[in-house]
């Protein structure tokens, strides 16, 4: 059981480190004239992610989850998602944030994974919220929070795309790139 808690703890520490990077990036962008959009849904998104980890911990504790051979398949998908996360965040650089922070006049990032899909980091979050619980057979958490995350992303992506389109021609830049499918539109 200890390895289960350690693994989940490492993921939580990773997320907290990302929040620190996001805060630094937010300050950097705001100093250059950026503004926040979609702030009204941000507390709900944070609550969703906090509740996800709490639910995961409760479910694995109740079940006394352990590593099994079955754990390897969802773990592989989770680790692939981590690699894509690093690629997406590195591609965005100082523009990456957990909030919707928009810098007027900045060009939309359309290279790296963004060349193929508009929202690779959100695709990663979808994979993580589904596969991390499956590593520990936490099926309720995987299903419930996957559904809640889809609802959240439907609000989040709309707000983000509207804000980006307003200041930097986002829709024109990405008119041939789908949101989550890695096939370019003609």
UniProtKB/TrEMBL annotation:
The chain crosses the membrane at residues 41-58, 70-90, 122-148. This is Isoprenylcysteine carboxyl methyltransferase family protein. It is found in: Membrane. It is a multi-pass membrane protein. It comes from Alkalicoccobacillus gibsonii. GO terms for molecular function: methyltransferase activity. GO terms for biological process: methylation. Pfam families: ICMT. The keyword Translocase does not apply. InterPro entries: ICMT_MeTrfase, Metal_cation-efflux_comp. Keywords: Membrane, Methyltransferase, Transferase, Transmembrane, Transmembrane helix.
